[in-house]
Design brief:
Blueprint: H1 3-32, E1 36-37, H2 39-43, E2 53-59, E3 65-67, E4 70-76, E5 81-87, E6 99-106, E7 112-119, H3 128-149
Parallel strand pairs: 1-2, 5-7
Antiparallel strand pairs: 2-4, 2-6, 3-4, 4-5, 6-7
Length: 150
């Protein structure tokens, strides 16, 4: 084997290793990537079926029902509502009318099966995505009401 062939083989081996490493990194990144959706987006079927994602908004007042360790409630962005079921202990700050982000997946019946529930940590905080979603939903609702009045 000539020196040139050895260099080409070494270069080819390095390229193959680089491609394999890149593929592993991209694969791990895709598996751990969790997207955020609002209740309006979930109702509009923009959220993925059978994949884990996050849903955020406000816990609808009067919607929390407890059955042992299973809790069901509804998350709203003031425009649409999505039912959520969670089995486990909720955060201490979880309350009706307050901000929440739940991670899980949508089942075939349209119920969001949460694996994790996160509640806001003080009176003035709501996750930026949830705050933005609530603000957009309120503007859309106000525009629709204004259009109907005309």
């Amino acid at each position: 084997m000539t020196l040139r062939q050895k260099r080409l083989a070494l270069l080819a081996g390095g390229v193959v290793l680089l491609i394999a490493a890149t593929a592993l990194v991209v694969s791990a990144f895709r598996e751990n990537l969790v997207f955020f959706f609002t209740p309006s987006q979930v109702v509009a079927k923009e959220a993925p079926q059978g994949r884990i994602f996050r849903i955020g908004g406000l816990v609808e007042v009067g919607s929390v029902k407890r059955d042992g360790v299973e809790v069901s409630f509804r998350v709203t962005d003031t425009a649409q509502v999505v039912p959520v079921v969670y089995t486990g202990i909720l955060p201490d700050l979880f309350q009706e009318g307050k901000g929440v982000v739940a991670q899980g997946q949508l089942d075939a019946s349209g119920v969001f099966r949460a694996r994790e529930v996160l509640a806001k940590h003080d009176e003035n905080y709501m996750p930026p995505e949830a705050a933005s979603a609530v603000e957009k939903a309120n503007k859309a609702r106000d525009q629709a009401a204004h259009t109907l009045k005309q």
